[in-house]
Amino acid sequence: MKQASLFLAASALLVTAVCAEPAKIKCLIIDGQNNHSWQETTPVLKAILEHSGVFSVDVSTSPPNNANPDWAKWQPHFADYGVIVSNYNGQAWPKELHDALVSYVKNGGGFVSYHAADNSFGDQADYNEMIGLGGWGGRNAKSGPYLRLRDGEWRPLDGPGPCGGHGPQNEFIIETFAPEHPIMKGLPAQWMHAKDELYHSLRGPAKNLSVLGHALSEQTKEQEPMLMAISYGKGRVFHTTLGHYLEALDGLGFQVTLTRGTEWAATGKVTQPAPKPGELTAGPKAALRPLKPVPPSK
Ligand SMILES: [Zn+2]
Question: I need a labelling partner for 221 at 20 to 30 A (CA). Which of 6, 8, 100, 243 fits?
């Protein structure tokens, strides 16, 4: 009898251990100021991240401007999270908050620069180093070189020229550049991305940066970095230029690279399976997976 109860107790422990889900990675989306519709995109980003099963997601929304009485009180606590996803393109933060983000990443935190987040903080050297490349936001030739694909390598190209641009929105092909990187492993060599802006002519310090995926710009006739991984201090940064508006967020390729990139930024690993063969293809149309937005909690 005693042996039977011990056996039962042991079995119960085993079942608990096997059934217990791994702890979710805590993720914080930052928004509140953006020349893009963050009010519409953040709930979809949240849905995409949660759909992966890997993340629990909170949102921290800044006051609408720095004259707002709550501006100085807005103090998201980065250290509570494994990764911060920025959907913010707006006014400079109070120095204390800006420095808190930079030291969070420097000390091993994960950061994801999503679409126009790379337009933000153009005059902040540490932020530009974190995201590798950026555009607009007062950036110019002094912000750093372009990255240009020459003889199979990404090389810095100095010289005059704009910093940031895009043509009309279209579906376009993304090419995998780093197939062995955890974010890209198992993804097809090429896939059709949903209707989006194709950013071109980004410039920046581009230190410790790996281009993971790129696309051919009709404007520059150059391959332009679309997906990037940057190491910054002990931290990791995933930079996706993709995701202008909801059509782009419906793209399976956008979703897969966002969730894999966010997990890598948080942990340095990717546990999510790659799409099955045929799910993400080179076209003729982009594979779409519309996900229901999560209603804002406030
Ligand atoms: Zn845009």
Answer: 243
Tell me if 276 is assigned to some domain. no
Distance 197 CA to ligand 1 centre (A): 6
Residues ≥6 apart with Cβ < 8 Å to 16: none
Q: Where are the beta strands (DSSP E) in the chain?
A: 25-31, 55-61, 83-86, 110-114, 146-150, 153-157, 165-166, 170-176, 190-196, 199-200, 209-216, 223-232, 235-240
Q: What CATH number is associated with residue 108?
A: 3.40.50.880
Is residue 33 within 8 A of residue 62, CB to CB? The reply is: yes
Measured in angstroms, how far is the CA atom of residue 157 from the centroid of ligand 1?
Answer: 24
For residue 236, the cross-strand partners are 110, 231
Q: Give the range of the structural domain holding residue 256, as residue numbers without chain letter.
A: 24-145+165-267
Structure tokens at 251: 């793209």
Measure the CA dihedral 136/28/271/12, to 10°: 180
What are the tens digits of pLDDT across the range 141-192?
999 999 999 999 999 999 999 999 999 999 999 999 999 999 999 999 999 9
The count of domains in the chain is 1
Q: Residue 22 is which amino acid?
A: P
- CB count within 10 Å of CB 14 equals 10
Average pLDDT of the chain, as a whole number: 94
Angle between helices 38-51 and 252-267 (to 10 degrees): 70
Residue 272 lies in a domain: no
Comparing C-alpha atoms, which of 186, 185, 192 is closest to residue 252? Answer: 192
Is residue 188, in this structure, part of any structural domain at all? yes
Domain assignment of residue 33, yes or no: yes
> Residue 63 in contact with residue 70, Cβ under 8 Å?
yes
In the reported structure, the alpha carbon of residue 191 is separated from the centroid of ligand 1 by a whole-number distance in angstroms of: 20
- Tokens representing residue 46 in the block: 């949240």
